[in-house]
Design brief:
Layout (H helix, E strand, L loop, with lengths): L3 E4 L4 H20 L4 H6 L2 H23 L5 H30 L4 H33 L4 E4 L8
Parallel strand pairs: 1-2
Helix pairs in contact: 1-3, 3-4, 4-5
Length: about 150
């Protein structure tokens, strides 16, 4: 039987977007401001959920990607929750941008929508990885985690 390999690690784009979500949410909360497309396109209660969702997506996602490798299933599960939250809030924002601004939102909307698509794509990847881990554990195999970069050990 082939060894099970899970392609995970600190993906620079994922980490950067999760960090941006966290910082954006904290800044919006601290300043009490929201983008015009959000205030025009979402009810007030949904705006608050969106804002808190940015923060939670960042915190949960960054926690998942930074957990030690010896807790693979747990770290993948936490990462999945954070990235799913990111996909949700970026989908909400893309819809608000296009609904309020129409074709004027093509540039900003394309970037936000592509982040949403990438988030959902990553959710699917993590789901497949969790399935592989489960199958390996049930078969009594050990999952090998391939990281993008590993430190040299002394």
């Amino acid at each position: 039987m082939r060894p099970v390999t899970i392609g995970r690690g600190r993906q620079p784009f994922e980490v950067a977007v999760l960090l941006a979500a966290l910082l954006s949410g904290l800044t919006l909360l601290a300043t009490g401001t929201r983008p015009a497309s959000v205030t025009a396109g979402m009810p007030t209660s949904v705006q608050a959920v969106w804002e808190v969702g940015l923060i939670l997506a960042g915190v949960i996602g960054l926690t998942g990607v930074s957990m030690p490798g010896n807790r693979l299933a747990a770290s993948l599960g936490v990462e999945l929750c954070g990235v799913a939250a990111l996909g949700t809030v970026t989908t909400m924002y893309a819809i608000a941008l296009y609904a309020v601004s129409g074709s004027a939102a093509i540039a900003a909307g394309a970037f936000v929508a592509s982040t949403a698509v990438a988030s959902w794509w990553r959710v699917a990847q993590i789901g497949l990885d969790l399935r592989r881990v489960t199958i390996a554990v049930e078969a009594g195999q050990v999952a090998d985690v391939s990281l993008l970069v590993e430190r040299e050990r002394p």
